[in-house]
Design the sequence.
């Protein structure tokens, strides 16, 4: 999303690159806000709250504050964050996550949580619409009672698609970066899989798998599945020229 691209844009500009911003997605509230509102209001009834994105943290806190509650309401729950950006979003709100896995994907979250006894544990999972079923399904298999609520939706933002397509066709773009599967899907729908001579760089293996499935040839995948990891792999690649 445009509002969350500032760090990557600033880094690219600082390295001497021209950053061409094409957000591909906008973050919007769920069409029915009640499930998230009920979950936030009843957060004291959960043993674990698992956050898989910065957007999930932000939207959950909006619902928490709308219910007249604050960070103290999570005092009885353990908290997991999928990666450092999500953990930072929690930290600035006064919550230090109990679990931040070594790899920033759902599989690693599961490995970390599986080390605890989840039998009959009440787990709240506020996340994006259309997210993979892996996390709630596996948590349920481990004995947890999972409440999955839609915290937000990623919808296409295709403004400027025609102009970007022309620049790609003219060979004016050297790299296209993707930070989520939804950005890949919306990019392909709005622009196409023809990226000219540009390389494709993805933030992690899940995003890369989506890109490959949709017909893009992926050149780079960040080893650390974060924006700093993406910066690192881009820097190494272009330093070789």
Sequence:
């Amino acid at each position: 999303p445009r509002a969350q691209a500032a760090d990557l844009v600033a880094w690219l500009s600082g390295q001497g690159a021209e950053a061409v911003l094409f957000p591909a997605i906008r973050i919007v509230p769920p069409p029915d806000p009640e499930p998230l509102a009920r979950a936030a209001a009843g957060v004291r009834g959960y043993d674990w709250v698992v956050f898989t994105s910065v957007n999930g943290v932000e939207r959950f806190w909006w619902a928490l504050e709308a219910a007249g509650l604050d960070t103290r309401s999570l005092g009885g729950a353990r908290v997991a964050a999928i990666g450092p950006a999500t953990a930072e979003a929690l930290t600035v709100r006064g919550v230090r996550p109990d679990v931040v896995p070594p790899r920033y994907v759902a599989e690693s979250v599961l490995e970390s949580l599986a080390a605890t006894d989840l039998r009959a544990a009440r787990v709240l999972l506020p996340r994006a619409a259309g997210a993979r079923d892996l996390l709630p399904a596996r948590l349920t298999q481990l004995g947890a009672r999972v409440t999955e609520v839609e915290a937000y939706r990623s919808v296409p933002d295709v403004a400027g698609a025609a102009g970007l397509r022309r620049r790609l066709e003219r060979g004016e773009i050297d790299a296209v970066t993707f930070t989520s599967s939804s950005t890949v899907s919306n990019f392909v729908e709005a622009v196409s899989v023809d990226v000219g001579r540009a390389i494709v760089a993805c933030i992690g293996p899940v995003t890369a798998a989506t890109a490959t499935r949709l017909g893009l040839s992926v050149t780079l995948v960040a080893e650390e599945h974060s924006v700093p990891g993406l910066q690192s792999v881009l820097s190494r690649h272009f330093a070789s020229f």
